[in-house]
Amino acid sequence: MSTDPGVRGPVGRLVGFCLDNKLIVVLLVLLFVGWGVSVAPFAWRTGPLPRNPVPVDAIPDLGENQQIIFTEWPGRSPQDVEDQVTYPLTVALQGLPMVRTERSYSFFGFSTIYVIFEEKADFYDSRSRILEKLGSLPAGSLPADASPALGPDATGLGQVFWYTLEGRDEEGRPTGGWDLAELRSIQDFHVKDALLAAGGVAEVASVGGFEQEYQVDVDPDALQLYGISLAQVSKAVSESNRDVGARSLEINRVEYVVRGVGLIESPEDIARSVVTVRDNVPILVGDVATVALGPALRRGALDKEGTEAVGGVVVVRYGENPLEVIERVKARIAEIAPGLPTKILPDGRLSRVTVVPFYDRTGLIHETLGTLGEALTLQILITVIVVIVMVRNLRGGLLVAGLLPLAVLMVFVAMKVYGLEANIVALSGIAIAIGTMVDMGVIMVENILARRDRALAQEGETPDMGRVVHAASAEVGPAVLTAVTTTILSFLPVFTLIAAEGKLFRPLAFTKTFALLAAVIIALVVIPPVAHMMFRFRSGRARPAESART
């Protein structure tokens, strides 16, 4: 298209290819627009276009790459737990690959060990290593009744939804009428199991209330009187709570399955369990102990506005989209709400157990996205106005302004491909890069218009816009590419940050780099063909001295 030496360089050949194959450029633009809208983190209604948005959260997860091993050993002192559970496990886990440090805590009846891995260690691979180590512990390493368990596959920022269970009437007004033990049972056996079925939920932890349990309070005087040990009573209780299977019998060509039913259903069943027999007289558990329903020992409570409450916390699985998981949890709550227990209060009102959220990160996420979305919109509008005023050409200003939305959509695509999460820090990188992104478009369009005006003044008629656009783009393209490369290289120290600083600022560096790369691609690939189509139409013939832009 031109005899200028600059058009024969790599940038010139790229621009020439795009000018000669405008259909390919248009198809690529449509592809990235559709893909970008599909993965955009904002709550856009895309109609038939499928949605697979970038994971969204309000703030970046600055937690360490850690796994938690929890071991229960009921009734033991912290010193016993430390000596026989925590210390052996801590020593055994030190041999795992890429372990940076370990932190352990011993409490009354349980032990907690935090294994901190290097940042480059894969999250699920580290969990597999821990499970392999726990499964290969030598016999006798831990007490027989101490069973270590791996914590949920979530991070410290995974607690996204808290709720309480409360009695409400048909109009949603608080009614009460439910005690803490009832609410805790409903939470453990109804609500918790239902919410665990929502996709992306790693754990639903119950908080507050009283766990009901069968309590056997042994009378030491009765044990001494009957000559029975505490171990015998414990064995009698444990062995009585099971069903026994036998063979089948065929009677009159009908098969019957023989089984012994022994599962405990009430405190009376425990009280009637036989401990031993003396002189053909059975000594029952009820003879040496008092059996009743009672609350389990607890180490904490949930307080809401000065009143004890029962509730739970939903923890999102590692790598899931918190916004989508919360929406699924809310849908699950709405699904189970009609089936939650009800009771008639003494005053005649109907009280239904209701799930009442009191911490929902959805609001914070939407506020974050709304703030940044508004900031990006205002920046784009201001940029459009400034460009039109400075360039003094409406079509040129619109061409430069159109660079920004397309570049932002391409950034969303890159975030989805590289697995980056959209949060307030990551999206801020796009806002920071807008000024530099506009510069590229302004330089390209200004040079195209200047070349056109010079050609118009020399030739005295409408010039060959293909040749003008090609020459103008090839002239400033290498400089634009060099400037962007220099800006990207200046961010290399940010990519080397580690630990919490790296988790905080690396997403910003990535999004700013993606934005600059998207802008330079658009400047070299999209703007020249579009400028050729927009600037080649003029009304009438121009005089040689005419230099006014249209």
Concise account of the structure shown:
The protein is α+β, with helices and mostly antiparallel strands. Helix content is 50%, strand content 20%.
The overall pLDDT, averaged over residues, is: 85
Instruction: Classify the oligomer.
Output: single chain
Q: What is the structural class? A: alpha+beta
Specify Rg, calculated over alpha carbons: 35 Å
Helix content: 40-55%
- Give the strand tally: 16
Described by strand count, sense and barrel closure, the largest sheet is: 6 strands, antiparallel
Overall, the morphology is: elongated
What portion of residues belong to β-strands?
A: 15-25%
Straight-line distance between termini: 23 Å
Number of helices: 16
- Identify low-pLDDT runs: 539-550
